[in-house]
Structures are given as C-alpha cells and as structure tokens.
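The methods section describes the discrete structure representation at length, but only in general terms. An entry of this sort, consisting of the sequence and the corresponding backbone structure tokens, reads as follows.
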Amino acid sequence: MIPLQVAILLVVATAGTAVVLSRDPLRQAVVNGAYGLVLTLLFVVFQAPDVALSMVVIGSIAYPLVLLVAIKKVRAHEDGEE
C-alpha cells in the first residue's frame, strides 16, 4: 500500500469520526457532505473513478441536500409554520 493510500484512509477515518461526534443535525448534514468529498478522494486514490463520480453526486450533493430540506421542514413544523 502506498503512503498516499494510507494517508487518505486516515483522513477518511477522521472525517467519519467527525460525522459521528456532531450533535446538531444541521451541522451533521454539512459534515456528512464533507465526508462524501473525502470518500470521493479515497475512490480516486484507489483508482475507482466510476464510484468516485457516483459518490460526488450522491454523497456530497444529493444526500446532504435532502437532509437539509427535511431538517428545515421538521423545524418549520415544530415552530407552527406550515
């Protein structure tokens, strides 16, 4: 295993830990988007460009966007705004 692969695996582990330790759902959605970008780098380093492209779209854009919209709707519903 080359040193770049080891380094990116350590960054992925750190970013995953940051997602788990985030308590605020809004912050967790944003950190999860950053985690998606880190995973994209991991897939590029391990020479899986097709998986990296999928991860960019799903893990870094679509999933955090869906989470942010859901959080906004839940908070608006809790505040009595519909």
Remarks:
- Residues 3-81 form one domain.
- DSSP finds three helices and no strands in the chain.
- The two ends are 54 Å apart (CA to CA).
